[in-house]
Specification:
Layout: E1 5-10, E2 13-18, H1 28-43, E3 49-54, E4 58-60, H2 79-87, E5 93-97, E6 100-102, H3 104-111, E7 114-117, E8 122-124, H4 138-146, H5 148-157, E9 161-162, E10 174-175, H6 180-193, H7 211-225, H8 231-244, H9 247-262, H10 265-279, E11 298-301, H11 305-316, E12 321-324, H12 328-347, H13 353-361, E13 363-366, E14 377-380, H14 386-399, E15 405-408, H15 415-419, E16 428-433, E17 442-446, H16 453-465, E18 469-473, H17 481-498, H18 502-512, H19 518-525, H20 527-540, H21 549-555, H22 581-594, H23 603-624, H24 630-640, H25 650-657, H26 659-669, H27 684-692
Parallel strand pairs: 2-3, 3-5, 4-6, 5-7, 6-8, 7-10, 11-12, 11-14, 12-13, 14-15, 15-16, 17-18
Antiparallel strand pairs: 1-2, 8-9, 16-17
C-alpha cells in the first residue's frame, strides 16, 4: 500500500482504493499512489479493467486541506496529471462512488471512463464556497456529462446532489444496490465483454443553442444575489468556455480563471473562514485522547424564548430533553412554543410531520428538580440575573447526578461565580447559545477557571451533535462576542450624538456588508436587553462613558419590534423598519441637552469607528487569553453577528487593511473633539503587530 492508496485484485479487476482519512483527500501521496496503481494495472496482462473507489463511506472529498498553501499541493503528479493518466488508460476505468464525491473527487470520477454509484451518494463541486471554481476540468467535463444548465447550477451553487438524479446521463452509468465495489467490478466485466468504447467526457461535443443569451441571464442573476463575490461570475465564464471553445482551450481558460480567483480578497476571506471553523474545534492544552462524557439525556431549566430554542436543538438531534419551569403556566407556554415551532417547520416543508412528532415525543416537561436526576447535561436558561442563576445552580448541585455536566446559558455573567455556587465547579461551564437558539449556528463554550478538560471536550462534542459551530472563550464580561459588540454599539450611539441618524448608520454598515445595522439589530433583540446591561455598567464601571440616548428611548417604552416601536416603528404583523419622526425629535432634544451641534458624518467614518472598535477590543481579548486565536473571533462574528463572510471576520479584515493602517486610523479617530482618546488607544497587541509589520492571522 502506497500512503493514501490501497491496490488489490478482485479476480481480473484491479481495485484502487483511496484511503486517506478523514475524507480520502487527494494528497500528494494519494495522487502518486493512484498513478502508480493505474500504471501497475495497465502493465498486468491478467487485469482487464480498473475500479477506483474510496475507503469507508465516501469516495473522496477532493483536495487534502492539510496541503493547502504548501509545495505538495502543486507537486507532480497534480490532479490534472492524475486525471489525464486515468483518461488515457487503455483498459476501462470505472469510478465506484459509494458515498460523498465532491470537489476534486468528482473531477477525478469525471476523468474515468464509467461511473457507478450507490443510492443517495452525493456529488458536488463546492469550490465556489471557497471563492474559487473547479480547477481540474470540472467546469469543462460536467457540462458534457449532464448538460449545460444542470452543470452550471451545480457549479455556481456548490450544492450536493444525489447521484441517482443523473442516471441516464453520461455522469452515472448505473446505480448499484449493495456493495458498490462488487457492482463496479461486475459492470467493468460487462463493459469488457460487450467491447464498449472507453468514454472520455472530453470527447463529447457540446451544442447549446442561444448560449450567449443564457449565460448573460445567468450573469445578471448572480450579479444580484452574489454581488460581493467574484467566483460565481467566473464559474459562468468557465462553463461558457466549455460551450464556445475546444476542450483543451477551455481547460486552459478554466485554469486561468482559477488563478485569478485565488488571489482575490474574497477568496482569501472564504478560505480563511473555512479553516477558521475547523481550527476552532482544537483546544490547546487539552490532550488529544481526552474522552468526552456520555450525553444520552439532557435537561433544560427555563421554558422561555432561550430555553425552548435550546431544547429544540437537542430534540431535533434525537436526544431526550426534560424541561423544567417554576410554574405550570410558564411550562405550558414553553411546550406550546416548541410545538408551534415544529408545526411551522412542517407547514413550510422544512420538516416531515413524523420527524416533528418524533422530536416532540422526546420532550418531558416538569416542575420538579428531582426529575433531572438522569440528565447527563443540564443547561440553565433562566433570566439574566446573578442571584437567580446562583440559586438554580445550588439546586442543581443537590439534584443532578454525579458527573453530570452543568451549563449556564448566560450571555455576560461570571461563569466562575456561578460555578462557585456548587461543590463541583469542575463540572460547570458556559454554553452561550444565540437567539433564536434553534436557528443560530454559533455556540460560545465558556471555560471556567476550574472546568475539567473532559467537560470541555464533552461540550464541543455535544455542539457537533446539535450542528453548532463551537468556539471556546475564557471568562469575562460578555465573553468574546458580546464584549466586542458593546463597544461597536457604544460608537454607534456616539455617532448619533454627533449628528448621524440611526438610518444613516444602519445603511453604512449594511453597505459594508453587515447583515443588519446596529439599530435594526437592537430593535430585533430588544432594546431593554442593552438597557439592563448598561444599568449594571453604570454601577460597576462609573468611569466608562455611554450615550444616554438609548436610555431615553427605553424610558419611553420603545423596546423594539416586540413593542412596535424602538429606533424605528413597526406596523402590526410586519418587521419593516420605518423611520419615526418621534425618534428624530428625541435625538435632537438629547443633543441640545449635552450641547452638541450635529455635523454631517460620512459612511467611511461610520464604518471605521464601529468596525475598528470591534478590532481593537478583539486584540485585547487575544492578549488576555479570552480568545484562543484571532480566527476564533472571526468565527464568532461570521456565525453569530452577521459580519460579512466575504470579508472574513473583523480580525482578518484588520489583517487585510494592515495593522499599521488600523493603528493610524485609531489615532486619527482619537483627535475627534467629542471622542474619549483612551478608547482609541491601540491595544498593546495591535500596536506590536503594527510596529513589527505582522498580522493577527500570520
Amino acid at each position: 500500500m502506497t500512503s493514501g492508496v490501497r491496490y488489490g485484485l478482485h479476480g481480473d479487476i484491479a481495485v484502487i482504493t483511496l484511503d486517506n482519512p478523514p475524507v480520502n483527500g487527494l494528497s500528494h501521496e494519494t495522487r502518486s499512489g493512484l498513478v502508480a496503481g493505474v500504471d501497475r494495472a495497465l502493465a498486468d496482462a491478467a487485469v482487464i479493467a480498473i475500479v477506483v473507489t474510496g475507503a469507508g463511506r465516501l469516495f473522496s472529498g477532493g483536495a487534502d486541506i492539510r496541503e493547502f498553501n504548501t509545495p505538495k499541493a502543486l507537486a507532480e503528479p497534480t490532479l490534472h496529471t492524475v486525471i489525464r493518466t486515468v483518461e488515457a488508460a487503455t483498459k476501462p476505468v470505472v469510478a465506484a462512488v459509494g458515498g460523498s464525491c465532491v470537489g476534486g473527487g468528482l473531477e477525478l470520477a469525471l476523468g474515468c471512463h464509467f461511473r457507478v454509484a450507490s443510492p443517495g451518494a452525493p456529488v458536488a463541486l463546492p469550490e465556489v464556497k471557497l471563492g474559487l471554481l473547479p480547477g481540474a476540468g470540472g467546469t469543462q467535463r460536467l457540462p458534457r456529462a449532464i448538460g449545460v444548465e444542470a452543470a452550471l447550477n451545480m457549479i455556481v451553487t456548490g450544492a450536493n446532489v444525489d447521484a441517482a438524479r443523473f442516471v441516464g446521463t453520461a455522469l452515472i452509468d448505473e446505480i448499484v444496490e449493495g456493495d458498490v465495489v462488487e457492482g463496479a467490478c461486475a459492470f467493468a466485466r460487462r463493459a469488457v465483454a460487450e467491447r464498449r468504447p472507453l468514454k472520455r467526457l472530453r470527447d463529447i461535443a457540446l451544442d447549446y443553442p442561444n448560449a450567449d443569451g443564457y449565460f448573460q441571464f445567468a450573469r445578471n442573476t448572480v450579479a444580484t444575489v452574489a454581488k460581493h463575490l467574484p467566483a460565481p461570475a467566473k464559474c459562468i465564464d468557465a462553463v461558457a468556455a466549455a460551450v464556445a471553445m475546444p476542450f483543451e482551450t477551455g481547460l486552459r481558460h478554466e485554469r486561468e480563471l482559477f488563478r485569478q480567483l485565488l488571489i482575490t480578497p474574497e477568496s482569501r476571506a472564504l478560505r480563511h473562514a473555512f479553516f477558521a471553523e475547523r481550527a476552532a474545534s482544537r483546544i490547546p492544552g487539552v490532550a488529544a485522547d481526552t474522552r468526552a462524557r456520555n450525553v444520552a439525556a439532557v435537561a433544560v431549566i427555563g421554558a422561555g424564548t432561550m430555553g425552548t430554542g435550546i431544547a429544540m436543538n437537542f430534540l431535533s438531534a434525537g436526544i431526550p430533553v426534560t424541561m423544567l419551569e417554576a410554574t405550570q403556566d410558564a411550562l405550558d407556554k414553553g411546550v406550546a412554543t416548541i410545538r408551534r415551532n415544529y408545526q411551522s417547520s412542517v407547514a413550510k416543508g422544512r420538516l416531515k410531520d413524523e420527524d416533528a412528532r418524533g422530536a416532540l415525543a422526546l420532550l418531558a416537561p416538569t416542575l420538579r428538580y428531582d426529575d433531572l436526576r438522569d440528565a447527563d447535561l443540564v443547561v440553565e436558561a433562566v433570566f439574566e440575573e446573578m442571584g437567580l442563576k446562583e440559586q438554580v445552580f445550588r439546586a442543581l448541585d443537590e439534584a443532578a447526578k454525579p458527573g453530570a455536566v452543568l451549563a449556564t446559558n448566560t450571555s455576560t455573567l461570571d461563569v466562575n461565580r456561578i460555578a462557585a455556587a456548587t461543590r463541583r465547579p469542575q463540572d460547570v461551564l458556559g454554553l452561550h447559545f444565540f437567539s433564536p437558539a434553534n436557528v443560530m449556528k454559533l455556540l460560545e463554550v465558556v471555560r471556567g477557571a476550574k472546568t475539567a478538560d473532559d467537560v470541555l471536550v464533552t461540550a464541543m462534542a455535544v455542539a457537533k451533535r446539535v450542528r453548532k459551530t463551537a468556539v471556546v472563550s475564557g471568562v469575562c464580561d460578555g465573553f468574546i462576542g458580546n464584549r466586542m459588540i458593546e463597544h461597536y454599539l457604544r460608537q454607534a450611539l456616539f455617532l448619533v450624538e454627533e449628528g448621524a441618524s440611526p438610518r444613516e448608520i444602519d445603511k453604512a454598515l449594511e453597505t459594508f456588508g453587515m447583515a443588519m445595522g446596529p439599530f435594526r439589530m437592537s430593535d430585533l433583540a430588544g432594546n431593554d436587553v442593552g438597557w439592563r446591561i448598561r444599568k449594571r455598567r453604570y454601577a460597576e464601571r462609573p468611569q466608562m462613558r455611554y450615550s444616554r440616548i438609548a436610555d431615553r428611548l427605553c424610558e419611553e417604552g420603545r423596546f423594539g419590534q416586540k413593542t412596535g416601536a424602538g429606533w424605528y416603528r413597526y406596523e402590526s404583523g410586519r418587521r419593516d423598519a420605518i423611520a419615526d419622526p418621534a425618534v428624530d425629535a428625541l435625538i435632537d432634544a438629547c443633543r441640545k441637552e449635552i450641547g452638541i451641534a450635529p455635523r454631517r458624518i460620512g459612511a467611511d467614518e461610520i464604518v471605521d469607528r464601529c468596525v475598528l472598535a470591534l478590532i481593537n477590543e478583539g486584540a485585547r481579548l487575544l492578549e488576555e487569553g479570552i480568545a484562543l486565536r484571532a480566527s476564533d473571533i472571526d468565527v464568532v462574528y461570521l456565525t453569530g453577528y452577521g459580519f460579512p463572510l466575504w470579508r472574513g471576520g473583523p480580525m482578518l479584515y484588520a489583517d487585510m487593511q494592515g495593522p499599521y493602517n488600523v493603528v493610524r486610523t485609531l489615532r486619527r479617530l482619537a483627535d475627534n473633539p467629542h471622542a474619549d482618546p483612551s478608547f482609541w488607544q491601540p491595544a498593546p497587541l495591535l500596536a506590536r503587530l503594527a510596529a513589527e509589520g505582522k498580522t493577527f492571522n500570520a
